[in-house]
Amino acid sequence: MKIIDAHHHFWDPVANYHPWLRDEPMIPFRYGDYSSIRKPFMPDDYDAVSRGWDIVATVTMEGEWDPADPVGEAHWMQDLANRTGRPAAHVAQAWLDREDLAEVLSVYKTLPIVKSVRHKPRANPAPGGPAGGMMDTAYREGFRRLADSGLMFDLQTPWWHLDEAMDLAALAPETPIILNHAGLPSDRSAAGLAGWEAALRRFATLPQSVIKISGLGLPDRPWALEDNRAIIRTCIDVFGPERAMFASNFPVDGVCGSFDVIFSGFDAATRQDPEAARRALFHDTAHRVYGL
Q1: Which residue in 37, 130, 179, 255 has the fewest CB atoms around it within 10 Å?
Q2: Beta-carbon count within 10 A of 11 CB
Q3: Phi, psi of 269, rounded to the nearest 5 degrees
Q4: Omega into 158 within 30° of 0, i.e. cis?
């Protein structure tokens, strides 16, 4: 199976400033202790962890680079791609509610690998709280301006904010929204999974929506197919293979499991699916969506 890894990171926090990878104390993190990934992760490191899998292209995700230098990471990634041929595409940092957004987007138009942007909106720690950042006026105006840039939007938010994402999407219905990490189904109780699936089904009615099946780890627990099979199958059922893609989220998900364990899980969970569906999930959807 030829694979496009639709979401991972390259970073060098020794040479470049990523606050969460350099500063002390470490931030609260959904997987717990992440000290093991506070080091460079470059193409050679990726090759080492993914050995044995036929990775034909990858898409890198912004790694929370120094916000005082909003285009620095994208320039660094474009230079890396020019030198090594990787990544094939990049999702760049863009603060939708900052005054420099127009300038940042104009820079991204000059960088061929930048296909999408991400700005994690302010979120509540659990369902039932007040509106999150996607309802802020400045954030919404920034999202609307993405339509003029031709860039897509990668959205990372807990599932209980997806109705707000649908409201946001109406401001620019032509802008693809790529939901990161399966909508973050961290609460695996029956009630939590029911709420997640219902929100996912509503969000999937947006023609512009796509999902990445990644980031499925649980804190202080090794990645296991028995924990994640139902999540994987629900994502595929809700969005269809033509709007879903697999991704490693490495090195972050390396906190929970090896690359081989995670992709073997994706493989096992779809073993009975038609080959065309598997090609879409492992390769074709990412190829089409990111214009590779």
Answers
A1: 130
A2: 24
A3: -70, -20
A4: no
